[in-house]
Amino acid sequence: YVRFHLISPLIQQSAENTVLFDTFVNILSHNLGEPAYEADVAQLEYKLVAGEYGLIIRVKGFNHKLPLLFQLIIDYLSDFSFTPAVFEMITEQLKKTYYNILIKPETLAKDVRLLILEHGRWSMIDKYQTLMKGLSIDALSAFVTAFKSQLFVEGLVQGNFTS
């Protein structure tokens, strides 16, 4: 089991940064779909989660091939690229996701409660409005570059691994 949390103070600076981060993680997951398929067949699991403070990478499975899968994820992260068509597809999916959260009273109530309790949190309404105003491909590229330059990493490796 390998878990790394790539923490960046950049994410919580604005609602736009939060939306750009969500877009970035979704595109990264989309890009990894095909190359990581063989790992899935070999019973290796991975998950990319857009946490509040950074990207969480979770990988688990048999230890002899796990570093290869983790390296694949890191390679795609470091050489991040996307096409305009993928960008449009992911932003449309995010609009639907945000909207679905907003129309459910229980999830909206949870979001409002967390907005009151947590300092520096952006509401789902703020994120949805930001996304509806439109994001640019250049803004995402600039955000990803800034995100990768301001990272703090916490990690946990558990299981049958050598130091």
UniProtKB/TrEMBL annotation:
Residues 1-129 form the Peptidase M16 middle/third domain. GO terms for molecular function: metal ion binding. Pfam families: Peptidase_M16_M. Keywords: Metal-binding. Gene3D superfamilies: Metalloenzyme, LuxS/M16 peptidase-like (3.30.830.10). Coiled coil: none annotated. This is NRDC protein. It comes from Daphoenositta chrysoptera. The gene is Nrdc_1.
